Amino acid sequence: MTTPVAIVGMSVLLPGAPDLDTYWRNITTGVDAITDVPAGRWDADYYEPDLERRADRVYCRRGGFVDPLAEVDVVSFGIMPNSVAGTEPDQLIALHVAAAAITDAGGDRWLPADRERVGVILGRGGYLTPALARLDQRVRTARQLVRTLGQLMPELGDDKLEQVRQAFSDQLGPDSPESAIGLVPNLAASRVANRLDLRGPAYTVDAACASSLVAVDHAVRELADRRCDVMLAGGVHHCHDITLWSVFTQLGALSPSQRIRPFHRGADGVLIGEGTGVVVLKRLADAERDGDRVYAVITGTGVASDGRTASLVNPDTGGQVRAIRQAWLAAGTDPAEPGSIGLLEAHGTATPAGDTAELATLAEVFGPASATDRPVIGSVKSMIGHTMPAAGVAALVKAALAVHHGVLPPTLHCDDPNPALEATRFQPIAEVRPWVGEVRRAGVNAFGFGGINAHVVLEQAPNSRPGPASVREPERVLRLSAASPGHLAAMLDTDDATVLATGLDEREAATGPTRLGIVDPTPKRLALARKAVAKGKGWRGRNDVWFAPTPLLGDGGGKLAFLFPGLEAEFAPSVDALARRFGLDWTSDALVGDVGRHGKGVFQLGRLLDTALRRLGVRPDAVAGHSVGEWTAMAAGGIHAGHQVDAFLDRFDPDALRVPGLAFAVLGAPADRVLAVLADQRDVVLSHDNAPSQSMVCGPADAVEALVLRFRADGVISQVLPFQSGFHTPMLAPYLDPIRRAADGYDINPSAVPVWSATTASEYPTDADDVRDLFVRHLLEPVRFRPMVEAMHAAGFRAFVQLGVGQTGSLVADTLQGRDTLVVSAHSPHRDGLDQLRRVVTALWVDGAEPDVSPLLPTTPRRRAPVRLDLGGALISLDARTRLRMPGQASALDGLVDGSPLAAELSSLLRDTADAAAELLTARRPAPAPTRLDSVLRVSVDTMPYLLDHCFFQQRPGWPDHVDSWPVVPATTVIGHLMAFAEQAAPGRRAVAVHDVRLSQWITAIPSVDVPVSVVPAGDDRVLASFDGYSRAVVELAPEFPAAAPAPWTFTGERTPDLTARELYDERWMFHGPRFQGVEELTAIGAEHVRARLVTPAAPGALLDNVGQVLGYWIMASLPDRTTVFPVAIRRIRFHGEHPAAGERLECLVRVTSVTDTALTADMQLVRGGRVWAEFDGWSDRRFDSDPNIRANDRAPGRNTLSTVEEGGWTRVHERWPDLATRELIMRNQLGSAEREQYDAEPPRGKRQWLLGRIAAKDAVRRWMWDHGEGEVFPAELLLRGKEVVGVHGREAPALTVSVAAHGELGVGIAARGRCGIAVEPADAPDAELKATRAALVAAFGAHHEDGAVPVVRSARVGNPPGLPSREYIVAWTADDEREMGT
Amino acid sequence: MSVDTTAPVTGGQVTEDTVLAEISGMLRVLLDEYGLDDVEITMDTRFHEDLELESIDLVSLSADLKERYGDEVNFAEFIAGFELEEIIAMTVGQLVDHVVVSLREAARG
């Protein structure tokens, strides 16, 4: 064979072995997996060993079975559990095993991105498999039954016969035409291809017991021919139908002694097994290149038929010999040579004829025994039976594992070997032994009925690395956020497992400004992260760790740029998986050195990454490019239309740009040093000022070469590059016409995003002619990349994403060295773009951006309960109830009915009684399995008026605008609804527990919303119930509540709470209105627990909400800050009875199990009459930023302000809510409807300051009003309009002038009669005080103040409070009326 | 010629160990710019794969080498004959060997 093929992944499902590891363990420890036929496969009364043989009698009932192992997590493959019944089980098992084999090879991401290069070929026979057998029963047997009955008993009549047919069919379950496709035999392979998206050849082959190895032979050829790069091959056999047993019985092939003993002197026949095995194959050279683990290498395959030489049932050695010789010829080894083989995994069916023929074959091919060379012969059939079409793969996997581990495995039941073995080199062994020998080489036989023979030669991998398989999981990303580096360090100050457990879901919002992100958080990376965080200095990307003490982006205010690389010496894009995931067109035939095509590839890649990043919510504040990457930037920025660039590049003649005799060189020196050397050169010019450590020159090849040598001699790293154009030099001028014409053809559009020019180191001009001029200058003048990056930094750019291949990013890093900057590439040669974008998203998130990671996450749902497959093919028995209803169940009384009314009455009475008894008896049968349910829940204050008592924000009594109060569906009400929908989907059953409750988003009631509901069965007794996008839970269903309840907890070390339940509500510690006020008594509180008494409220979900309130009280009483909490998840709630009625009293016990900065977890019990009614396990609250001031404001917003009043009467507020989620809450509490709209319309930059200013100014007005005798004034009652303040919904606002200013984390406001103005400047700005003073004057009196009198302007220096970035500000203020300004 | 200009600080024999220690020191200084302070550097450490150095980073390393060992060790000449893949796959050991050989030749020379 010219192409050795590596086995790089394997998996099996075989008798006694649900997976590869168990299979190998069973093989080496000699586990005998043969058992009696399980009930349900076929009926026991077929087994009649003592009676005369007949087609419908068997004399053997032992074999290899997988029934308890035949479980498949179908949902994870996107298959609905309710379609399983109608699907041939072997298709689902094949899918399961194939997926496991791919996982073993490295997982889905390991597969070639081009799925057209992956195929699957499985051996499978044409047997009466279980689903087909059931179809036969439904279609043929049912009709046959009534025809025969009708012919024998014509008195039954058509109606009764139809009843019989119906009763019979009903036992088979409902018709399901939609799953009929699951009966098509080749789907064993096609379903694998479909579900795993393999687009190469996918088919089944049938060569009886040789099928698997024939499939392997096909697969090897697919690889050798290079039509495919990865092949799945194997076999599948899950048929123990009685018809198959009948065939083997009639052939006399089954063992009368019911033992399978290959190569035993007394071997008397085969036992039937079943199973599935799949190997993942790849050309050895590719596997070595990719660093795959190689179990063994297939060096040869052979397939041959006996032709006419044998009878159809009795094997001949000729065909076997030819198949084996063919394979060894391909392997290039003489099989008869000493040491040629260490293990022969034989077909070994244990039939006398089969064993004899095989041993004769082996003697012929491998020669006679010698004293020193006794290779081992074995057959795994001695352990699992003959798995028919899957026999070859069961044998191949065994042999590959033996080669891989260097272990010779035993064969069972061969204590007295067949004398014919003596003529061969081989001997069986009963105990496992190490495999010593120069090269571990094995042969595998599989011979089929009818004379089809196959053989495979295996040998150890050239650099075989034995050892346990390592499974490559999809990369995980750890995200942590905290209020400060100190907090983050504290979170990391524990073992790795705990750190990993506290990581944020990538879809969750961050909670703090200090963030850490690690892709693939290995212990080493975690250790590195701890050090980086301890240092408190930013760490951006090395070793896939990102840490930002304070963000550069988002609240950090820095700008983000996209950088498009130009032509680099290497261009090998790896974005196939990315393009597929995002559904983007991607083909690249770029060639380095071919400027035109290379340029097109660079352009396409840049646009692909640009599109992908924008879909992830990553939007640049400007774009720029390096060299011709600037063209990509112009398209991405919107100046040029993409299709025009495409057209330009299509027409582009690369030869037109080849300037003869020119060369480029890269020099590891700054531009000024290069220019100094070039001063005495005439023909070589500087083409690129890339970075302090890199410049490029262009000129005649020999002059450039000389220059390179000169610099190199000076120790400067220098290299001539493989480009021959004169780009960015005057030397291109004579060749420029085609490009100039193309440029003139371009439409010039206003840019959507600023585009920077590396020719001018500034933004592109807006005038179309200027743009065209610059486009041409760009080709004739040097690329001034370093000055451009410097200018961008000066303009506030702090993050640079590279959108393409190469080292453009490292030029930025070199230029901005020592300054806090994030540089990250969206492309990496080391991994697909999909994985690389994960890093970009992580990096940007760490620096304060909020990209949307979800398009990058795997779409397969998490593992759910697997579905057990029905492999049975038993005869149909009618259940008792049907039998009673059927004709022919007449009693002796019925014969008397006509003559006796009494008999008639009695007969009828008996029938009724029997019906009633049957009803009772059948009622205890399990309820039908849950079904899928899709529905909609309308959430509004009309349908759920009680929500008006579950509003987050207080407003003036009678406030007409309910949305300002923000009514939200409580989490516990959500859970109640999920349970109710689950019960709807499973009639006759109760929701007895909920698991894995996730509450991801609040459901607000105004405006009303129709929430999509879905209930998906997840096993026999569970459903996944979801409010799409909001929340979900797995609901467990049972006919009744569990009888046994846990014991109520008891506590010690407690005290009387310092609040009463009444005060909890009256003093607004809880925002809940009367319909949610169920806490009647706060009984006791301890260090880690709290107890209370509840009165069940009538509102749905309110009782469970009260449990959360009790926990909320513990938090307020026990923790100093961050006491605003909302539930986000509950691991489990188990119920032990019906929901209590309104008014019922329960005891509530809360046990706090963990508290971190961001989260808090507790377990709870609700006890009714001394018995636990509900137990909560792992209730998780998320803690939001809050301090006492914020709390006070939440409790009484009409009497408190977030701002403080300063001497001079102005107000200031600092942003004490670093995370977005808390800011959202603060915003909703401080702004009314109209202002919220304004807030939403504010651009992201400055939004925070806008809000701070608003709050400060409105607080200034409210303070003024309170000073002038006003009572409660709520923030939503006031609205700023320019310099005026107006009242909302009937509130009269005083005639005041208002002035607002904000900077960084500070907002200031002033309100006065007459003119007033306020301004703020960062204290470290040059002339801060002067600037602030001027700005305050302008704010108060306008730009041209000419009043004559010099107004008094006061100023003060204020600093951020602890916990915020340390920053000082100068605040200056002035007003007409000095009195209004205080003293 | 003067031996002093090329002899390492150990004053005597040029050994792999001393050169590895010195180059490790240079790399640590270089990497410290990135904050990576206690990475283990051995003869097998790869510049690109393990230290995540890009080719532009080699420019500073080259300057450091020149400053330490003078003109006898020319890193630029050394890697001039390398293909791009070879530069990417280069190990610290290759550089150490080059320095040791260059210094010994110079000492002989």
From TrEMBL, chain A:
SUPFAM superfamilies assigned: 4'-phosphopantetheinyl transferase (SSF56214), FabD/lysophospholipase-like (SSF52151), Probable ACP-binding domain of malonyl-CoA ACP transacylase (SSF55048), Thiolase-like (SSF53901)
Ketosynthase family 3 (KS3) domain residues: 2-460
The keyword Transferase belongs to this UniProt entry's keyword annotation: yes
SMART domains (UniProt xref): PKS_AT, PKS_KS
Keywords: Phosphopantetheine, Phosphoprotein, Transferase
GO CC, alphabetical: cytoplasm; plasma membrane
Domain of life: Bacteria
Protein name, per record: Acyl transferase domain-containing protein
Taxonomic source organism: Umezawaea tangerina
Coiled coil: none
From TrEMBL, chain B:
Pfam families: PP-binding (PF00550)
InterPro entries: ACP-like_sf (IPR036736), PP-bd_ACP (IPR009081)
Span of domain Carrier: 13-103
Record-linked Gene3D superfamilies: ACP-like
Protein name according to UniProt: Acyl carrier protein
Organism expressing this protein natively: Umezawaea tangerina
Lineage: Bacteria, Bacillati, Actinomycetota, Actinomycetes, Pseudonocardiales
